[in-house]
Each structure stands twice: as structure tokens, then as C-alpha cells.
Amino acid sequence: MIGSLRGRISSKLPPQLTVEVGGIGYELEAPMSTFFHLPAVGAEVQLLTHLVVREDAHVLYGFGSEDERRLFRSLIRVSGVGPKIALALLSGISVADFYQFVHAQDIGALTRVPGIGRKTAERLIVEMRDRLVAPGLTPGGGTSVSGAASPEAEAYDALVALGYRPAEATRLLKAAGPGTHSTEELIRRALQSAVRE
């Protein structure tokens, strides 16, 4: 099992990134909560990881904090919740908010995340309520993205990759407000507006 990686970020295209370690580029998928705190392409980064082995692929997931990785590992043990839904949950809801929603049995807040229907939200609450430990969040630093595509296009692609329909992604980006924002800031604002709806 690969437990962590420390190396240089060679590419970032949410939710994927590549970290070069000793001449080998590791492709990872990461929740937006981790992406928001990544340094710029070319900078050094250390991420905790979780490897998911399937018949058709080995997928490495990266996390900026132990709380995120612990919640991801708990989520993928829930019946009907795979890595893609777990990633969407971590992207749409902070670890602290997820803890609060589960203990408050707030099904409505969980169903606002794409891919989470009422039955899945109910199952999450029932199965996660007793095994969640209060998170000790560790904040990260600022963000910056390098790339040829515009921040709006990258944010749109990331929202679609997280499970939003194209029309929803467009609407959420419009709701993010005018002005010049980084890709991460646009995604953050779009996800915040989705949770408020």
C-alpha cells in the first residue's frame, strides 16, 4: 500500500493531479477540499494516499489531511458508496460539516451533493453515526493554478467530473459571481452555492 507521497506537482487538472517523485509521475485523484490547499504547479507537496484496486484499474487518491483520508476510508466501506461518491462528498462538504450533518441526521444537506440520493443519505447517517470521530482539522495554505485552459473551463470540467450535469455546472459557475477567480476559487464558490440551494 502507498501511504503517502512527497514530490513536485507536475500537473493539476481538478480532480486529477500528477506528483513527480524520484522521476516517477504518480497520477492521483483528490477531493476539492485538498485541491483548494495545493501549492502551484512545480512546487513541493506531501499528500496522504489511499490505493483502490479494481479489476480494470489501480486508482491512487490523495488527501491533504488525515481527517479527509479517514473519512474517505470510512465512506467507501458503506454499502453503495464507492470512491467516486466518497470523493464527491469530500468535495462538496467539509469533514466537520459532514460530521455535523450525520449527527444532526440532516438528510437534505447530504442529498445536495451530486450522486447522493435520499436512500444513500439515510444509509450514510445510519452506518456512519456511530463510527465517526470528531475531526481535528488541519488548515492548509493558499492555491494557485498554472495551465493553458481558462479557470472557468477547468472549473466546469471539474464539476462535471464530480457528477454535476453540464447544465448544473454552468448554472453553479454563473452563481459563483463575476470577477477574476482562480479555478479553485470558482469551484469552491460553485460548491458553496450548491450546498446553500
Describe the structure.
With 197 residues, this protein is of the alpha+beta class. The chain folds into 3 domains: 60 residues, OB fold (Dihydrolipoamide Acetyltransferase, E2P) (Beta Barrel); 63 residues, DNA polymerase, domain 1; 46 residues, Orthogonal Bundle (Helicase, Ruva Protein, domain 3), CATH 1.10.8.10. Helices cover 43% and strands 19% of the residues. The chain is built from 9 helices and 5 strands, in the order βββαββαααααααα. The chain has a 5-stranded mixed barrel. A hairpin with a 2-residue loop joins strand 1 and strand 2. Helix 7 crosses helix 8, helix 7 crosses helix 9 and helix 8 packs across helix 9. The protein is globular and about 45 Å long. It starts with a strand and ends with a helix.
List keywords for this structure.
alpha+beta, DNA polymerase, domain 1, 3 domains
Q: What would a concise description of this structure say?
A:
The protein is an alpha+beta fold and 197 residues long.
